[in-house]
Amino acid sequence: MKLWNSLSAALLVGLVVAIVLNFDDYGTTWDEIFHYGYGDDKLAYYQELFSADDPWAVIQEARADNYPGFYDINLALINKLSPLSVQSTSHLLCALFGLLGIVAVWAIGYRIGGPRTAFICALFLAFMPRYFGHMWFNVKDIPFAATYTWSLYCLIRFTECLPRISWRWLIPAGIITGFAMGVRSAGMLLGGYLFIVLAGDWLRTNNSGVDNRQLLRLAARYIGVLVVCGIVALISVLPWWPYLHANPIVRLFEITAGLQTFFWDGIVLYNGEYLRASALPRTYLSVWFGITTPVVILLLLGLGCIGLIKVCWGQIKARLQGVDHRKLIIGLMILGFAFPMVYVLATRPRIYDGLRQFLFILPSAAVLAALSLEWLLSHIKKEQVRKLILTGSLVITAGSSLFSYISLHPYEYIYFNELIGGLPGAYQRFETEYYGLSYREMTEKLVAGDHRVPWDRPTRVSNNGAQWHIEPYFTPDYKYVLYTEPSDYFLTYTRKNVTTPPGDIIDYVEREGVPLNFIVQRWSPGPDPLGDPSYKGATPTDNPPE
To answer: pTM for the whole thing?
Structure first.
């Protein structure tokens, strides 16, 4: 026990050191700059609310910003005290949320299996590159994954006490569920998980031979639990989501329903083909999970499916009489991982950017993989074989992912596993650097290379991303212009297979031999290469001085 606790502490310290050393290495993403404004706007709303003569009028006007703001408001508050830039502060805060998610799976593993299981859970998540890679900058999905997982932990502690109602854990579960909803409205899933756990315990009680009167009383208690948890969650989300203040329940369900009709229908590169987001196959999410998750974890999850089938068959034959709270808890973790996957298969919602919107399933996947490993070890009699399998699983997972972290940094999130041939095998088949982080490195290369024009004016630079991708890294000798205007250099990342940009390529960013971004000299104005996959590029032209 002491060994595994020491290893967990060493892993935690290592992650803290990695965060301190690396949080400022990452470029600007597409999304994060909007969240800076969302946080400031919500603080301005509260300032107006508390100083207004007619607060209800202020509440009624809070219609424009319908985004939840748990992360955004906290960032805005911290940024007022932080000596760092808002981007650096955000990246540090996001990384700390990622760390909280890893601590959450450690805590879950400790409750289910003890110190060894806890360490394995934490190590599996820390060395799951899609989680680790996003935790530095994904200000929407990583905070949601962390709050989602901590809510699962509270639900586990609550489940351990059933049929006794543990308010000590129910109230925190409701509060953290509210925080999760304050990041993404999908946090309401956690209320559904609580319902399923309570229904499972009611069925277990029903099969234990109690009379109908007791069953009715238990059902009434469990309905009360759901109502209380829902009220606590709603109260907890309200401070972070001003849009709900005028009519919380109606607006919350309006937003949730609107997610099914999300308007974005852009072009997505999937298995070498360009597809509209509305036409992606039902297997989109499961394929991305399969090619971006370390192989050892995939194998363990497959093994866990075999064990699950065996247990379920035994329960069917026993008519649920053998169901205990530990099985309910493991069932809760299975729900946390599998339900979103099944939901995507069944409904085919509009998703894109790989696993980005479903990073919250990865902590549950790490826990289930750890439990599968423990289940395998429990069925092996020879001590030497057990040690070999345990050590091999941990060393291979951590070693291969660490190698990828070093070779891909600061783009760890573009990891692909051996099943597809790593990043080179995925190139031109699936999106690699879709977030625009590589513009920072590309811009710094342009500036460091002293590629200024010989004329008496700033060097004009455009890109096929956003202005904030490159302009923060300019020196005074460089000026940002739109891609539709004449420019001296054009920076282009490789999203949607922009692999041969027109013009003279003078430098590029690459990882593992795969290009991520290019500097193109003497670009002429033309259509957006990312808006039309048939576009082959404009004709290069000399850029005369102004």
So the answer is: 0.90
